[in-house]
Write a sequence for this structure.
């Protein structure tokens, strides 16, 4: 399928071929008929993307602070690598479209194949022939509304939410500053609500269009104060909505000047918020900055995971605003067609962006630019794309065919460069739910094909080993399917998110006798860790791990119990495995305490854990989410046989024994990723897993029991893999035998 992508590092735009997106639970697949270029937002994105790194930094000072903190914590090389991974990925453009439903995913009700729908939200409703849209961002199109008019749906919801927050009353006088798409839509909505509207803009063409669409007055900014005085009997407007897009705060200042005492200033536009405090104070004005399309906007639980907000408590969510907008268009209260100034077929989308950038001139300045699409694309037919010819395995070599499932930030920034440089492997295929991510990862590392259907990887006979780096909820399922397909499996942590998943994986591994299953617990392979193991000989030890992990927002997928499983299952597991690797034993009991948030509610983000190992060793982990991220992330202390080992953020380490200390320091951080992958492929060739499956079971079970220990406030045993498979329950308040 064709899609429009922007390369954020260079600002370049391309219309390219991608595999169609995979169907997932809670979504519908839609064949796009029309999509709208958001002139203001997309022009701003293009402007920022074309800047050099310094220019990008100046436009986003919040990013600069994150980079500075990262350098302090992890060093400049690690920071540069991760920054490049973020900037290098091409991103889809567009967030408002309309089309026909082609597939309905599990858990979706109210939609059927063939339905006409309007789609919203970034990156879902992109400029692409096929899009995958979460159910809360998809609404039916009334029969009276064309696909082209419905493609304005996201812009309509943004304008409608701003109007709602102004709380207009019948007969009120309202100013709309900035008569682009949003301003012209809002002016019509205000008129439909019984308000008298004055529009303000620097474009004579837009002023004329505002009058045509119902504004009582449409004037230039320099005439605004006098016109508003005449319009309102010198009282000022009841509210002013600022839809302008500029680096200046002048529109905000003007809004304050023309608004009556105790009125409202609503600012959905991209303007500086340097408030004229004196004016706001003397008039006691209310400043409101809307959240895009309404409650739910930007909330992953609502937009991506489909959790709705109850209507009695939240009348107008983002989704309900989307539906209300298309109803307004159907009723004729909002006219959209006069706003469409230009149309381009998707294969000529670059001409649309040249027009947007001012590189070409036409008779009219762009207001609404619509992209149109062919009717022939089917999602089922194009979920795999070959990028270079298949090459047969050379006779007499031990070359391994490798498939990759998942192409997120960690994969792009860490694993892909390593896989690309490993010897005696052939990179066969990449699978990701996003066609853009799949193709980009495949091209960067040199894979033969990309796909949005991971089963293409599992069914490929040329793939000997599968690397799974998806989100956590898919790890167990995909690992089981890969083992059953006869593949060797490297799966990123965690191995599983609950007892049932773990049991299924262990059973599949036991049946795949000659297949290797390895979990991405990389720290035990780090050079610093290997040195400590060599020094201390895996003897009885006391080990302490301090992790300055930093906060992760509540809305992150990592925190979602179904998708990420939380930070104990998803991240603390690393340090349990590290303790096992250094001490040479496995956890047999756990105790834990969590920091109380607000004095009463425990949070799993900041915890202290104590582990008893079956060889007499003990381990402790302090995992903190409430520190300063510029402080080094990890510190490991090992006490064993009269000696002390210390690892500091896997950049330096030292060993003290016999009254003497030896210091070691590396130029860059090395958490063991390259050694881990080398161990995986070496293990396949010699037919022996680098780490016993019992270790992975013990680590994973320990994370589950830590969560239970937190809730029960008891010490819990951690059963062995064999006892776990037999269904033996963990016992409270036990000690290792």
């Amino acid at each position: 399928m064709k899609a429009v992508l922007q390369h954020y590092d260079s600002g370049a735009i391309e219309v390219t071929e991608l595999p169609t997106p995979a169907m997932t639970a809670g979504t519908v697949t839609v064949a796009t008929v029309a999509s709208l270029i958001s002139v203001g937002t997309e022009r701003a994105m293009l402007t920022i993307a074309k800047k050099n790194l310094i220019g990008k930094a100046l436009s986003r000072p919040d990013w600069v602070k994150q980079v500075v903190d990262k350098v302090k914590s992890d060093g400049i090389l690690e920071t540069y690598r991760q920054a490049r991974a973020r900037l290098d990925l091409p991103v889809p453009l567009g967030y408002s479209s309309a089309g026909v439903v082609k597939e309905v995913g599990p858990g979706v009700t109210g939609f059927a194949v063939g339905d006409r729908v309007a789609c919203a939200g970034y990156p879902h409703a992109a400029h692409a022939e096929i899009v995958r849209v979460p159910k809360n961002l998809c609404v039916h199109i009334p029969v009276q509304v064309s696909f082209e008019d419905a493609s304005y749906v996201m812009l309509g919801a943004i304008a409608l939410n701003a109007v709602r927050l102004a709380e207009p009353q019948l007969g009120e006088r309202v100013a709309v500053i900035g008569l682009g798409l949003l301003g012209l839509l809002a002016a019509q909505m205000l008129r439909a609500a019984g308000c008298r509207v004055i529009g303000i803009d620097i474009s004579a063409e837009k002023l004329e269009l505002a009058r045509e669409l119902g504004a009582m007055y449409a004037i230039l900014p320099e005439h605004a104060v006098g016109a508003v005085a005449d319009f309102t009997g010198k009282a000022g407007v009841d509210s002013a909505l600022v839809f302008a897009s500029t680096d200046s705060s002048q529109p905000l200042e003007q809004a304050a000047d023309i608004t009556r005492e105790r009125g409202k200033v609503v600012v959905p536009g991209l303007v500086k918020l340097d408030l004229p405090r004196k004016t706001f104070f003397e008039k006691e004005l209310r400043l409101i900055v809307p959240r895009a399309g309404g409650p739910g906007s930007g909330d992953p639980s609502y937009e991506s995971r489909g959790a709705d907000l109850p209507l009695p408590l939240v009348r107008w969510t983002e989704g309900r605003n989307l539906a209300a907008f298309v109803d307004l268009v159907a009723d004729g209260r909002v006219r959209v067609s006069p706003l469409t100034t230009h149309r381009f077929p998707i294969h000529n989308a670059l001409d649309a962006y040249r027009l947007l950038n001012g590189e070409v001139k036409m008779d009219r300045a762009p207001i609404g630019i619509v992209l149109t699409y062919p009717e022939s694309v089917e999602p089922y037919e194009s979920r795999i794309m070959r990028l270079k010819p298949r090459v047969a395995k050379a006779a007499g070599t031990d070359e391994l065919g490798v498939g990759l499932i998942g192409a997120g930030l960690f994969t792009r920034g860490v694993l892909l460069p390593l896989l690309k440089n490993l010897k005696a492997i052939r990179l066969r295929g990449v699978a990701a739910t996003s066609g853009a991510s799949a193709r980009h990862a495949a091209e960067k590392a040199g894979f033969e094909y990309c796909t949005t259907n991971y089963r293409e990887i599992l069914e490929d006979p040329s793939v000997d080993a599968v690397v799974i780096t998806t989100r956590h909820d898919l790890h167990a399922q995909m690992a089981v399917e890969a083992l059953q397909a006869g593949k060797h499996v490297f799966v990123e942590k965690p191995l599983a998110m609950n007892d049932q998943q773990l049991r299924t994986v262990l059973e599949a591994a036991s049946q795949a006798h000659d297949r290797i299953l390895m979990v991405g617990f990389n720290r035990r392979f780090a050079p610093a860790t290997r040195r400590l193991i060599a020094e201390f000989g895996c003897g009885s030890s006391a080990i302490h791990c301090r992790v300055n992990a930093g906060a992760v927002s509540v809305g992150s997928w990592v925190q979602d119990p179904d998708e990420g499983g939380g930070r104990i299952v998803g991240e603390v597991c690393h340090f349990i495995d590290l303790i096992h690797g250094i001490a040479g034993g496995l956890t047999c009991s756990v105790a834990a305490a969590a920091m109380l948030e607000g004095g009463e509610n425990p949070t799993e983000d900041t915890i202290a854990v104590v582990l008893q190992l079956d060889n007499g060793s003990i381990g402790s982990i302090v995992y903190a989410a409430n520190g300063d991220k510029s402080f080094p992330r990890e510190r490991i202390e090992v006490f064993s046989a009269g000696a002390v080992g210390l690892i500091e953020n896997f950049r330096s380490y030292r060993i003290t024994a016999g009254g003497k200390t030896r210091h070691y320091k590396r130029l860059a951080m090395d958490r063991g990723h390259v050694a881990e992958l080398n161990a995986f492929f070496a293990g396949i060739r010699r037919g022996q897993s680098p780490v016993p499956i019992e270790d992975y079971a013990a680590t994973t079970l320990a994370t589950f029991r830590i969560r239970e220990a937190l809730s029960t406030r008891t010490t819990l045993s951690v059963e062995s893999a064999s006892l776990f498979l037999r269904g033996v329950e963990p016992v409270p308040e036990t000690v290792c035998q």
Remarks:
- The longest strand covers residues 601-613.
- Residues 66 and 629 are 8 Å apart (CA to CA).
- The domain at 157-288 is CATH 3.40.50.720 (Rossmann fold).
- The chain has four domains: 2-152+336-372, 157-288, 384-519, 522-725.
